[in-house]
TrEMBL record:
It holds the Pfam family Aldo_ket_red. Keywords: Oxidoreductase. This is Oxidoreductase. Residues 17-285 form the NADP-dependent oxidoreductase domain. InterPro entries: AKR, Aldo-Keto_reductase, NAD(P)_OxRdtase_dom_sf, NADP_OxRdtase_dom. SUPFAM superfamilies: NAD(P)-linked oxidoreductase (SSF51430). The keyword Oxidoreductase applies.
Amino acid sequence: MTSRTITIGTTHTVTRVGFGAMQLTGEQVWGPYPDHAGGLALLRALREEGVDFIDTADVYGPHTNETLIREALHPYPELTIATKGGFVRGGFDYDTLGSIGNPLYLRQSAKMSLSRLGLDSIPLYYLHNGYATDAPFEDQVGALRDLQIEGVIQNIGLSNVTIEQYAIAREIAPIAATTALFNIANRTGGALMRATLADGGVFSPWWPMSIRKSVENATPIFEVLDPIAASHDITTGQLALAWLLHLSPRILPIPGTTSLTHLRENMAALDVTLSAEEVARISALATDNEA
């Protein structure tokens, strides 16, 4: 069994399987979640199922994900909320996804998320990506540092940044957490993960269970995973989470779901104990930037 909790910065200790709320939006992450009552019910079930960390972003909807979370859970007893800013959407099509790094825009984004969520201060706020070219990266991180000094946010995170950007950011402000694509089949965020863990930060892999989405032909991978999962009487999804939890006590997966059954399965991954040999066999299935 792995450690069950993790501390973000010095302020928030949470259970090591969080909840990625992105799926509680409309199709293609655009507009409100169509089953409004069902979304509220799922969010309200989180605490009794052991979840105390929720990951969202202003671009999810946009905005509808944050407002749904507030309607369901405010004032968030024993919950830690993370949100993000810097991505923008111009419509239903993903081709309209863009990046803005203007420090004034980032300040506005953080304060609007603060308002939508009904918080006095955001526990963890991520720069959503390092792609923006309208402002120097240093100025973008500087905007978050200023927001932290002012108390608008408590901890700074970086999402989808390069290892070089991560190093630059650490010279400007303390970085409590990073998040990037990392799972059994796709290790794109591997370098960022290792750097974050080496510095004592928290790494949250997104798409932690999406093996089939990561590779066109996942059959050879499942030829390894299926027997291991069967030996523990768990699903391959639970195995994917358990593997991540065994890699480091500083890893905080944030699987998303719209199903209470799947939520319970995700949380049960905390109770899975893998052998060192099993972890090594799974780890050998892919390398950094290889799918």
